[in-house]
Design a protein that fits this description.
Layout: E1 2-3, E2 10-13, E3 19-22, H1 36-55, H2 62-80, H3 87-95, H4 103-121, H5 129-140, H6 177-191, H7 199-213, H8 220-234, H9 245-251, H10 253-266, H11 269-308, H12 310-321, E4 324-326, H13 327-334, H14 338-350, E5 355-356, E6 365-367, H15 369-373, H16 377-386
Antiparallel strand pairs: 1-2, 2-3, 4-6, 5-6
Helix pairs in contact: 1-11, 2-4, 2-9, 4-5, 4-8, 6-7, 7-8, 7-11, 9-11, 10-11, 11-12, 13-14
This protein binds adenosine-5'-triphosphate.
Adenosine-5'-triphosphate binds next to helix 2, helix 8 and helix 10.
Length: 387
Amino acid sequence: MKPFNSRAGKTVPQGTGYLAYVTAPLPPNPPVLFDAEMIRILSEADLALGQLSGISSLLPNPDLFVAMYVKKEAVLSSQIEGIQCTLDEVLQHEKDAEGVRTKAIGEVVNYVNAMNYGIKRLETLPLSLRLIREIHGHLLHGVRGEHKDPGEFRRTQNWIGPQGCTLATATFVPPPVPDMMESLANLELFLHDRTSMPLTVQCALIHAQFETIHPFLDGNGRVGRLMVSLLLHERSVLKQPLLYISLFLKENRAEYYDRLMDVRRNGNWEGWVKFFLTGIAQVSNEAAVTAQRIVKFREETMIKARAFGKNELALVDLLFEYPIIDIRTAERLLDCTYVTASTSLQNLAKDGCVKEVTGQKRNRLYKFVGYLDLFEPEARIDRLDHA
Ligand SMILES: Nc1ncnc2c1ncn2[C@@H]1O[C@H](COP(=O)(O)OP(=O)(O)OP(=O)(O)O)[C@@H](O)[C@H]1O
């Protein structure tokens, strides 16, 4: 048995010749050190989260913003794991319920469903092991990993590392099942702790510990990221799941993994917490900027649409809900004739509000380009530079 350091866990040799990791309980002992740098990053993260929370009340449709962000986060989460799927594909899938649902899109849709399920469930159940298992069940339902015990903690040893590696050559071997159950019980107690530390720091510790325990056979990353949003929601810091941590973790994947390993090997919680809080500050700031732009974009688009008439104005409202739309759907939702729906969409297209994307005469499809662009990180950075 080799303790790395008093607040790190230890590796324990297993009968079949490999070393598995056993976690140290949360909160860390000695406690997380709040030096000057930590205090600065913590206050930046808290300030950014507060601004994001405040601005959500100004959004024309916070629910939609949330939906778009959850989708975007889901797409990125899937991309972390190497599944490519764009936001357009997800929206396209939603538009056409009969459409072919590829596996990648299925995973994204499941992620959105799991998030919505979790938020609803928090009305009656605290964030707990039971809720985590339920969310996992939704996440893996009918997609890749569906045979890997959705909704159930693992009953066998797992390991993390490059594809094809074995228990002996793995980068990291999470706790054996009995130790895993003990670590989970401690994690659950810590989830309910409302007094020992700032919530954002608690989120950082919980995410890292959850990834280290790795209690599921698949989907641990996605569940671990969802837990952050759900905890912020449960504690009323951010009522809508507007936080968008996946982008940061994706862009800094090597450092993300290194920091987790540094906690496991050396008990360096401070390095991890600072990294995580930097991410919270960055993604909250970006989301707040996006929210401001949506408010402004909506005002500008309404002015353009009003110049055409009341149908176009109603259509713009609809487009915030259905950013990819065909004429039949517009006809049905606006409760007007096919010709009126078609003319209104063409008018908006003339003004550049929407863009026809098929290039066909029939089954035309219009995209609310200006709005969708606001969710693209590249476009956002570009506009920030020129703002
Ligand atoms: N080399 C590594 N070092 C440290 N942590 C790792 C490493 N590889 C994976 N992890 C952790 O395990 C998670 C992935 O676990 P798993 O494959 O069960 O989850 P997932 O949701 O299917 O994947 P992903 O997080 O990639 O979307 C990562 O998000 C990360 O937290």
